[in-house]
Amino acid sequence: MSNKILSDEMIREFYDFSTNRHSLSKLPKQAYLYFPSNKEIMEFDYKNLNRLNRRIFEGGVDYISFEKGKLEDLDEEIEFFNKKNRKQTIIFQSNLKEHDYLRFLQATGFDIKKTLLLIKNHLDWRRENLPVLITDKIMEILNIGYLYIHGRDNRFRPIININVSVVNKNTKNYTFEEWSAATIYLMEYVINNLLLPGQIENWVIICDVKDVSLISLPKDFKKILNLLQNNYRCRLFKMFIVNVGNFFNIIWSVIEKIIDGNTEKKIKIIKEGEITNIFDTINPSQIEKKYKGEAGDVTSYFFPPIFPSELYLTQKDNPNTLFLPEEEYKNRILFNEHLIASPFVKLPNPNSSECSSFKRSNMTEKDGKMKKKILKLMHEQSLIEKSSQNNESWIENVIDSKNKFNNFQKKTLDDYDKIEKKEEEVLEVFKEKSIEILGRLQIILFL
User: Per DSSP, what are the bridge partners of residue 158?
Assistant: First the structure.
């Protein structure tokens, strides 16, 4: 392909993000109302936490104590590294965030030394390769069908298509640097435009290896795979390798026995003509006909992403349980500043009486943690009251504790800004008092 084949409209797509194709690439309304279940957020075995498989890292999601401990260990290792190498301090002066570090930790099996090296190499890579400067060659590569976005799965994860035979046919037309820059440009576009922190953080890959053997894989393509593996960690939800020949299938039967369980679960090998497994988690309307789907095959104009249908769920999905009601969604968004609000749902103005009433009725604080603490204290209070019904000697203490809680609640409602600074201290005192009373009652009950 030459620049002459690229139409003015196709070129415009790389400079004007207000075009119709870019607008159609935006997340649908349903996606904002979807919140992954605990199992979808992460899977792990307490006997081997080093192999836990977290999929959601952002949006204010809670980390388990094991992860927090490893992050602290990494902080200490980074501080030690920086002191030892003052002339090449490389870590915390970057734009990486805690969730980025956790991705790298998980990728190395929480090996601190390996993670530090991986982060250092990644930061060097970012400095050398980002931002990507658009050239004619990059625009061509992203319009020949080697790498493109086509549809979403039933949890709104974007589907990335890779056609290896296209790389084979065009190897001599482009340098590795051009292949690499085009790949990086598309992956960064996906992260910045097609994902939703705390809700949708992964992608699905369909890798077509038709008419390609392991022996004939271009060297540049192998380097690109390494680039993706080293710098876009913990983003892959599932990879379908389709149109696999018998030779590759035999080799895979050996490989799958030696790779770790998490990797083995993510990769599905599908022989030529056997595409049905894809539709367990993807609506057929999102897949091209060449892969047994219902969407038309794309032959040109591969960028921006293509979303052929508004049907995302499969027959097994129940929308009544999958999506939050709008009122509950508003509740969650207002309680969590880390989430991105839906443009389809009107939220109350932060300074309006509606929002003030909403906040007061739900006893909220900025990140929702205060609400959880208060609800826990209310539960403890309820336990104390029930345990005290037949014990007159402690009833006055219970009433006194309840009054303190009521006063605290009233003060929180009437003077929200001031109580923020003192909330931890007040809660701790009240909690200790409640636990003390409950402990005394338990002693009596067990006598």
Answer: 152
90-116 burial code (b ≥16 CB/10 A, e <16): bbeeeebeebbbbbbbbbbebeeeebb
* Average pLDDT score over residue span 370-395: 49
| Residue 7 to residue 163: CA distance in whole angstroms | 23
With beta carbons less than 8 A apart as the criterion, state whether 199 and 56 touch: yes
- Expressed in percent and rounded to 5, the helix, strand and coil fractions of the chain are 55, 10, 35
Is residue 33's pLDDT more than 50? yes
- Same-domain pairing of 234 and 358: no
pLDDT digits (tens, 9 = 90+) for 168-218: 899 999 999 999 999 999 999 999 999 999 999 999 999 998 888 766 677
Strand 147-152's sheet: what is its strand order? 147-152, 158-163, 203-208, 236-244, 267-271
Does 313 fall in a domain?
yes
Residue 374 tokens, joined: 């208060």
DSSP code of residue 244: E
Domain boundaries, position 239 = 8-29+132-320
Q: What pLDDT does residue 366 have?
A: 43
Residues 120, 105: contact at Cβ < 8 Å?
Answer: no
Q: Could you tell me if residue 342 is inside a domain?
A: no
CATH assignment of the domain containing 46: 1.10.8
Query: Would residue 341 count as lying in a domain?
Result: no
Asked if residue 206 and residue 292 are part of one domain, the reply reads yes
Three-class SS of 259-285: CCHHHHHHEEEEECCCCHHHHHCCCHH
Structure token pair of residue 257 = 């026995």
pLDDT band at 81 (very low <50, low <70, confident <90, very high): confident
Of 229 and 376, the structure prediction assigns the larger pLDDT to: 229
The dihedral through the CA atoms of 220, 226, 232, 234 has a sign that is positive
Q: Is the peptide bond before 319 cis (omega within 30 degrees of 0)?
A: no
Lowest mean pLDDT among 266-275, 334-343, 381-390: 381-390
Domain count along the chain = 3
For residues 55 and 114, membership in a common domain is answered with yes
Q: Say if residues 71 and 63 touch (Cβ distance below 8 Å).
A: yes
Phi and psi torsions of 241, nearest 5°: -95, 110
- Is 325 a domain residue? no
